[in-house]
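in:
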């Protein structure tokens, strides 16, 4: 099976490693909150047409390696991921909203994204 995915007029292999944090880097992603976060991330990525390669939810940050179609912008996907997961978590765990420091924001503002590269031989093999 090829590493490349196909759309109607495009072949692509866009793999990204993304890291983002809860607000103030609180160690809140444990137990049932961690499990709910993982389920939410996987379902949102699936709905957006992305493939989760690896997902690691640590107590104070999230690592996601995903294959994201060329037609989906990374900032668009991260906005959706962070927004919808925070809504789901606040809805499922109402005690999180009672903390005065959240202010209806679960995640910090930024994120780190790095592309995961293919080697040049692999690209030459598929793109002629």
């Amino acid at each position: 099976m090829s590493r490349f995915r196909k759309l109607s007029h495009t072949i692509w292999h866009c793999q990204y490693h993304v890291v983002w944090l809860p607000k103030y880097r609180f160690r809140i992603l444990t137990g049932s909150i961690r499990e709910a976060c993982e389920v939410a991330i996987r379902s949102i990525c699936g709905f957006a047409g992305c493939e989760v390669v690896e997902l690691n939810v640590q107590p104070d940050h999230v690592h996601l390696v995903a294959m994201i179609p060329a037609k989906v912008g990374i900032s668009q996907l991260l906005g959706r991921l962070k927004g919808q997961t925070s809504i789901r978590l606040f809805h499922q765990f109402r005690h999180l909203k009672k903390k005065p420091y959240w202010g209806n924001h679960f995640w910090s503002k930024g994120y780190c994204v790095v592309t995961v590269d293919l080697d040049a031989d692999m690209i030459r093999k598929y793109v002629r």
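note: Helices lie at 31-47, 74-92, 120-126.
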